[in-house]
Amino acid sequence: MLSEFDLIKHYFAPSRAAAQPAHVALGIGDDCALLAPTPGMQLAISSDMLVEDRHFFAGEDAQRLGHKSLAVNLSDLAAMGARPLGFTLALALPAADPAWLAGFSQGLFALADAHGCALIGGDTTKGPLNICITVFGETAPGRALRRDAARVGDDIWISGTLGDARLALAGYRGETALSAAEQQAAAQRMHLPTPRVALGRALADGGLAHAAIDISDGLAGDLGHILERSGVGATLDVDALPAGPVLATRAPALRRAWTAAGGDDYELCFTAPAAARAAILAAGAASATAVTRVGRIEAAPGLRLADAAGAPLDLRLAGFDHFK
Ligand code: ADP
Ligand code: MG
């Protein structure tokens, strides 16, 4: 049986100290970690918790879970345009299962290493499976992509594609018929989201975007947070929303519903002045991330949905809310 300390040493602190990035002055093993952000930069900090049966199914593949736990946190840094520095991991585990720990740490570190984001500490306890990560990033003062910064006349942009994660959920629940290949392709998006860190940083560093948010609970609801915090409204061109490859093969009604209000997309929704269009397309190309213009910010409050011809669409869209 693994002790708590063996478990941490073996799976979460294995000879990583040597490969520690310069911004980690002291990593795992003491009472606190010490971070050394670039002088003059602000720290960007965010936490996301993943709870079994709430955010993932019991028995979920450990490696995918390791990836997703960190990906949803990196997505928050991306939405601020921050550069990842490090993260802590608070873990409640029902048992010290070596196969599970090996898979989880593999998925976790593959993504962490790809982003130069070091595991700098955490806590480990026995209990129902619960994974809470806190990420630390840095951003230049005045450059962060805040929710309250959208301006009237801004374009609204989306990274990547939307809706395939929602389609995968419908497939698992038997609400939609999907072939095995379709289910697998759509489920990739649900289990292995790609945090748009490079795009977010390019938008912030280049001063290209005004406001941004990452889409976790459905575009309409998440864009609504930008509108509310910025004191503006918007029209969304629903037929311009880029659907994931599997959802793109479905009927227009489903496509509209789940691009506009899916869930678990982890794409960026950002607003930017029309003058930045060419630079934003270049930033998308440089970060190998599709970017699509899907609407505009207006003075009249509220979110209006329009079809390809510009006619109003009346979709009943529900954002995801844990307490509804
Ligand atoms: P403390 O007694 O101060 O709570 P712990 O015994 O919980 O410290 O942890 C010892 C060290 O291991 C600390 O540096 C802590 O940050 C780190 N640690 C504990 N759990 C994890 C984990 N799941 N991942 C990474 N580091 C961890
Ligand atoms: Mg502790």
UniProtKB/TrEMBL annotation:
Keyword annotations of the record: ATP-binding, Kinase, Magnesium, Metal-binding, Nucleotide-binding, Thiamine biosynthesis, Transferase
Residue ranges of domain PurM-like C-terminal in the record: 152-305
GO biological process: thiamine biosynthetic process; thiamine diphosphate biosynthetic process
Naturally occurring in which organism (per UniProt): Pseudoduganella violacea
Binding site for ATP: 122-123, 147, 216
Name of the protein in its database record: Thiamine-monophosphate kinase
Catalytic activity: thiamine phosphate + ATP = thiamine diphosphate + ADP
Positions of Mg(2+) 1 binding: 47-48, 123
Xref: NCBIfam families: thiL (TIGR01379)
KW Lipid biosynthesis (keyword) present: no
Family: Belongs to the thiamine-monophosphate kinase family.
Positions annotated to bind Mg(2+) 2: 48, 76
UniProt: Mg(2+) 3 binding residues: 31, 76, 214
Domain PurM-like N-terminal: 29-138
Function statement: Catalyzes the ATP-dependent phosphorylation of thiamine-monophosphate (TMP) to form thiamine-pyrophosphate (TPP), the active form of vitamin B1.
